[in-house]
Amino acid sequence: MNYKNIVVTGGAGFIGSNFVRYLKETYKDIQITILDNLTYASSMKTIEDLLDDRVSFYKLDIANELALSNYIDEGVDLIVHFAAESFNDKSLHDTSVFVKSNIVGTHNLLELARKYDIRFHHISTDEVYGDFPLESKDKFTEKTQYNPSSPYAATKASADLLVKAWVRSFGVRATISNCSNNYGPYQNPEKFIPRQITNLLTGQQAVLYGAGLNIRDWIHVKDHCRAIDTIIDKGVIGETYLIGVNNERTNIEVLQKILLQLGKSQEDFKYIADRPGHDLRYGIDASKLYTELGFTPLYVDFDKGLQEVICWYQDHEDWWQEMIAQKQMINKSL
Ligand code: NAD
């Protein structure tokens, strides 16, 4: 790591907090500042054990330009930008907060990166590319045309385009990564894998959208974090890198693995109505990351990775019960 004073936006969320944890364990001589608005999707509990003289935290909204400018100046040499509204389902009925956080927030950060010539890495998603039919064997590459389906994916795609333009027009030293679906510790129980695990651990039935045949390409969050580090270290400015580990699974296959590992019957779930615009299949060709930057994943055994994550949720009930309660409270007050 060539950078010593690093701002991590969204560092109290799922992937951002795993990244801070990874950085702290891997590099002893860096200072990390987490900037996060602590939305319903995050919790101080996720990061409280990380905070010390090397890691500090400030609660702020990246869409608030003035507030942001108090924390980013010439002393910062790298911004790793995770902060985003990230839940597809929510983006179908609450679009404006996605525009503010994901687009306006990214714009504000890019302007500061431009002003102070700060290296910038933007975290994005494979969802910007849309989807493939279920039977297709095609894969997204860095050259695939953007074709987002949901408001979430559209705002992420917009943010990516801002980054590309800021590189070209203003010489901002930025890279972008578009990653497939992550699983791992500290993922909000509203997301697919933890929702199934926490439902089953609390005696509720697991649920599947539609026929459960949608295909996702699952990567362990720790491999995502290592890939980001590789791109920051070796990536070429202005380039985009797809991140994935070639692990495509139907939703029903993933659920049945979880049922098996928790000792439940393979039929112990119910189907619910599909959500509108639900992407069918994602597939990632991450060969550029592997061949040009020499990345290799550690989590190649999905069953083992899943088992580890199930154990983590079994051992951290306090954490996810608080996340569920926090979301219920917000929903009630709306
Ligand atoms: P998350 O919802 O767990 O975390 C997002 C964090 O951003 C939260 O801590 C939240 O409080 C913070 N945040 C949101 N709006 C903010 C604002 N206006 N100001 C400051 N902080 C704000 O999401 P995640 O799954 O950790 O995703 C992190 C990033 O990775 C996102 O950019 C997402 O698009 C991308 N991504 C996620 C996945 C995945 O599978 N989860 C896959 C590919 C890419």
Please tell me about this protein's structure:
This protein has 334 residues and is an alpha/beta fold. Helices cover 42% and strands 16% of the residues. It is built from twelve helices and 13 strands. It has helices spanning 14-26, 44-47, 65-69, 88-91, 95-116, 151-170, 192-201, 221-234, 251-261, 287-293, 302-315, 317-333, and strands spanning 5-9, 31-36, 55-59, 78-81, 119-125, 174-179, 182-183, 206-209, 215-217, 219-220, 240-243, 248-250, 269-272. The protein has a seven-stranded parallel beta sheet with strand order 3-2-1-4-5-6-11, sandwiched between helices. The protein has a two-stranded parallel sheet with strand order 7-10. Helix 6 (151-170) links the parallel strand 5 and strand 6. The longest helix is centred in the first third of the chain and has 22 residues, at 95-116. It is globular, with a radius of gyration of 19 Å.
The spatial strand order of the largest sheet comes to 3-2-1-4-5-6-11
Query: What small-molecule ligands were found?
Result: nicotinamide-adenine-dinucleotide
Residues in β-strands, percent: 15-25%
Which spans of ≥5 residues are poorly predicted at pLDDT below 50? none
- Termini distance? 44 Å
Shape: globular
> Residue-averaged pLDDT, rounded?
95
Radius of gyration from CA coordinates: 19 Å
